[in-house]
Amino acid sequence: MTEYDELVHYAVADGIATITLDSPHNRNALSRQLINELFERLEESAADEAVRVVVLRSADRVFCSGADLSEAASGSMTEGAGALVELQRVILTHPKPVVTRLGGPVRAGGLGIVASSDLVFCGDDVTFALTESRLALAPAVISLTLVPRLTSRAAYDVFLSGRTFDAAEAASMGLVTRSVPAAELDAAVDAACAQLLRAHPQGLRETKKVLARDILGYLEQHAEEMIALSVRLFGSDEAREAMLAFLTKK
Asked: How many helices (H) and strands (E) does the chain have?
């Protein structure tokens, strides 16, 4: 694989590993290749003693458009659903803080990455949507991190309606740490990383374990059930018809 083929880039500077999603042809959809490379970059950053903080971001204006529907519509989601559960688990249990920078829209499965992250900063122009219900699906495996994060009323609202909501609302419901003016996003991320770099690595690692305990417990308790639900729904005639209609329209 050449650097032009990879979908997830990795760079380290001043104690910070930056992992960049760069798959513009499908708006950073969670394809098999992208997820596999993201696993590799997260593993690399966990093992690198020079890395104290991980920043996860996108290369362009879209952070993540959710599942790769072209893959999902043509085959079983068993592997994909399991991989997305594991991705959330890896982020939650990463020994270093994962700071996610959202400079563009986030849809569906991408919100699982957001909910798994330790700190999340977004520009005030970023929008979010859990569009699964409109495709005869449910946000099954990403509910494993979203449900513990969101207020119950907010979860009912955005899960059922599939509507688009803005950055201020995302902050108020607990999905993101902070919404800032778009022009100040990089400064906000840099300031957060600077504060984290002042902490001791052991302090960060052990504090993450304390904070993630309840979310991880919820994930482990419901993972198999949500994987089975995801596989059943993605394999249904209703969902296949809805996904194909969406892809054709797109």
From this structure: 10, 9
Per-residue pLDDT of the chain (250 residues; tens, 9 = 90+): 444 589 999 999 999 999 999 999 999 999 999 999 999 999 999 999 999 999 999 998 999 999 888 776 565 677 889 999 999 999 999 999 999 999 999 999 999 999 999 999 999 999 999 999 999 999 999 999 999 999 999 999 999 999 999 999 999 999 999 999 999 999 999 999 999 999 999 999 999 999 999 999 999 999 999 999 999 999 999 999 998 888 887 6
In angstroms, the CA 78 to CA 234 distance is 9
Query: How far is 42 from 164, CA to CA, in rounded Å?
Result: 29
DSSP 8-state class, residue 106:
E
CATH code where residue 166 lies: 3.90.226.10
Among the listed residues 182, 219, 20, 207, the one whose alpha carbon sits nearest the alpha carbon of residue 118: 207
Which residue is it, tokens 């993540």? 64
Q: For the chain, what is the domain count?
A: 1
Q: Count how many residues are written for the chain.
A: 250
Domain that holds residue 85: 8-182
Helix (H) or strand (E) holding 143: helix 143-149
